[in-house]
Write a structure and sequence with these properties.
Protein name (chains A, B): Kynureninase
CATH topology of the largest domain in chain A: Aspartate Aminotransferase, domain 2
Distance between the termini of chain A: 35 Å
Largest interface: A-B, 93 and 94 residues
Strand content of chain A: 5-15%
Number of domains of chain A: 2
Shape of chain A: globular
Helix content of chain A: 25-40%
Cofactor (chains A, B): pyridoxal 5'-phosphate
CATH architecture of the largest domain in chain A: 3-Layer(aba) Sandwich
CATH class of the largest domain in chain A: Alpha Beta
GO cellular component, one term (chains A, B): cytoplasm
CATH superfamily of the largest domain in chain A: Type I PLP-dependent aspartate aminotransferase-like (Major domain)
Strand order of the largest sheet of chain A: 2-8-7-6-5-3-4
Order of helices and strands of chain A: HEHHHEHEHEEHEEEHHHEEHEEEH
Number of helices of chain A: 12
Number of strands of chain A: 13
Largest sheet of chain A: 7 strands, mixed
Radius of gyration of chain A: 22 Å
Pfam family, one (chains A, B): KYNU_C
Oligomer: homodimer
Family (chains A, B): Belongs to the kynureninase family.
């Protein structure tokens, strides 16, 4: 195994890791190798502290006065700006609210409203499914809308973009393979055809730097409970480029999107800015945990994050292929780190059982049907020795056939 | 002041109050009279305990495994059934998710889809405004939809219901006056015209018993952070009568509403039951606080709740009119307790300033533009002596003119 780093070399990588101190900002059970931060990010003392303050002092003691005094009402836009910095959005264009699915609905409606003479939505068959389901929902309320899918109607999304297209809805990082799109190039391609673009950043935000403003993106959505570590089901975000805000309308026109929400007017009048993409009252406790998690990012150098992410995923691929190459694993992610998000997937006919065996041994990744082992590498709290250890366990499970034990074949309801 | 109970009589009311022990289940600051539980319900040790367990153990230690192990994924339907019991809904018809505004959108779309040959939505000009804004949003996605308003197009909602009406959207308890509708009678009236009905229960759930199933209601929505004490911005609920579930469709067709959410299929297929009214991933931490709050209701007799609510509000009206009658207050709520929710409103030209002065003195109600003093009486934690004390303070503020101090006239952004 010449060229494969040994444990000494790997410990040196950890020692040289500028992000290593960030691990202390998170709560992780002793002995666990957590490679599922791309599904649910880890908790942090900062998130717990915000949650406790919001619950015990602000709710418990200050009660209704906290809407003003603790700034609850302003949290969605303030957190939006704070998050915006991580995805290249200048202030005033991002708001944290609702769910990714609902924000897809808003963005698609707004985009189609800006292109009233067009009726085609382009998306990917390989998209995280809820994006497609929401596009179907939008189509059900806009007669004549046509959905064109990469992987069904043409092999590549670029071929589907023409002057009938109102909007392109695309994942920046594919949830399954981790493959990365070129944001600036695809946005330019959409614009050249007169279309708008909605970027789904669920597997991007907090995983690698992107530049929404610099790429001239129109809309973006994403979740905050993966790489941003906002907590289970933490509210999602939506970005709308400044140049569209005055005209962009979305039909979830609730009171939090009103220009004067506390005037209790009879008719809707959209706020002039990003607040028009809000709808109703937000879950403050969940938002406050997210606030704690986002504060950690104030101290993160996004270039260092990206460099470490590529180094971790490169190392994982290298070690798996060197040590487990005989056991039928096939790399499903791009081999080129610059074309990959912060995750690595391998296909295996028995992926479900192998992942169950890994989890039982304290290496947590996840399974995606029908046959994908998916491993996420959060640069803030995953180290190089974690990668080493994960591959050691994987090799042992494959070599010994431990995954063949009957209990690993029983599928649970939620996977 | 013959006939007006004195402090001795009021202390006897507290002593005889069967719900008095419930107060110990809530956290309330010493010395505060909290008459704003109709805006934000009080916190509880039960809610804090659930929140701590969900954050520190389930998120912090068990991480992604909690979706199964801690039952996170099932919470919306389990809490829906638990809440359903309080509004007369048999299991399988209620789900806790998203916001009231978003659930209004789903319900209106579903109702109109069930009445495809009709295009009229009937609502109230005096509705909590977000219901009207969401109806506008629905209308913007369904060509030809007409909105008819009680208070604009006719004096009473009953007069607006004819065979062109697809759906009636109505508040069971008016947010401002506390006036109560007859659920069974208005539902019958709508059905006789072939229309469906959506009941907004924001100021009903946890304030008084209702019988959705027994009233033959079609849809209902409501929030959980008022009388149910679920915490700031806790997720809302939606009820869909069993007889409509197979046919009712709503366009926020996210993956949590899919029949097989973890099969990651390319096309949407709605779940057969109430889950089709879910959309995306829910804020688990906020849901868990709500779980703690709802557990308290397992020990509440809803008839006793209603009796105490009427007694509290009757007493408040009686004392205010007896002691503050000279200062220009006008009752805005029904005088008949059986026609009133669990709140009392008085109009006064200087309502904003008076409420600010009350809050400074530790009596918390709220102001609703342009001239309403609103007081909510949560039977679980408001006692008769609280009512007495609130009126004493109000009388003092009015008699001395303390509300005229300049600082009370400065309006804050959120009121």
């Amino acid at each position: 195994m010449s060229g494969i780093p040994d444990l000494v070399a790997i410990e040196a990588m950890d020692a040289a890791d500028v992000l290593r101190p960030m691990r202390e900002r998170f709560v992780l059970p002793e002995g666990l190798v957590y490679l599922d931060g791309n599904s649910l990010g880890a908790a942090s003392p900062a998130a717990f502290a915000e949650l406790t303050e919001a619950a015990r002092q602000e709710w418990g003691q200050d009660l209704i006065r906290s809407w003003n005094k603790a700034g609850w009402f302003e949290m969605p836009v303030e957190l939006g700006d704070q998050l915006g910095r991580l995805v290249g959005a200048a202030p005033g264009q991002t708001v944290v609210c609702d769910t990714t699915s609902i924000n897809v609905y808003k963005a698609l409606h707004a985009a189609m409203g800006l292109r009233p003479d067009r009726s085609v939505i382009v998306a990917e068959a390989g998209s995280f499914p809820t994006d497609l389901y929401m596009a179907e929902g939008v189509a059900s309320t806009r007669a004549g809308t046509v959905l064109r899918l990469e992987g069904v109607d043409a092999p590549s999304i670029e071929e589907l973009i023409d002057d009938s297209v109102a909007v392109v809805l695309v994942n920046h990082v594919n949830y399954k393979s981790g493959e990365l799109r070129d944001m600036a190039a695809l946005t330019k391609k959409a614009h050249e055809a007169g279309a708008l673009i909605v970027w789904d950043l669920c597997h991007t935000a907090g995983a690698l730097p992107v530049d929404l403003d610099g790429s001239n993106a129109d809309f973006a959505v994403g979740c905050t409970y993966k790489y941003l570590n906002g907590g289970p089901g933490a509210p999602a975000f939506i970005y709308v480029a400044n140049r569209h805000l005055a005209e962009a309308r979305q039909p979830l026109s609730g009171w939090w999107g009103h220009a004067r929400p506390f005037a209790f007017e009879q008719s809707y009048a959209a706020d002039a800015g990003i607040r028009r993409f809000q709808c109703g009252t937000q879950p403050i406790l969940s938002l406050r945990a997210l606030k704690g998690a986002l504060d950690i990012w104030n101290d993160v150098d996004m270039k260092a994050l990206r460099a470490k992410s590529i180094a971790l995923t490169d190392l994982f691929i290298q070690l798996v292929e060197a040590k487990c190459g005989a056991y039928g694993l096939t790399l499903e992610s791009p081999r080129d780190g610059t074309r990959r998000g912060s995750q690595v997937s391998f296909a295996h006919d028995n992926a479900y059982q192998i992942m169950q065996a890994l989890i039982e041994r304290g290496v947590i990744g996840d399974f995606r049907a029908p046959a994908t082992l998916r491993f996420g590498f959060t640069p803030l709290y995953v180290g190089f020795k974690d990668v080493w250890h994960a591959v050691e366990v994987l090799e042992d499970i494959l070599r010994t056939g431990a995954w063949k034990e009957a209990r690993f074949a029983v599928k649970s309801a939620v996977t």
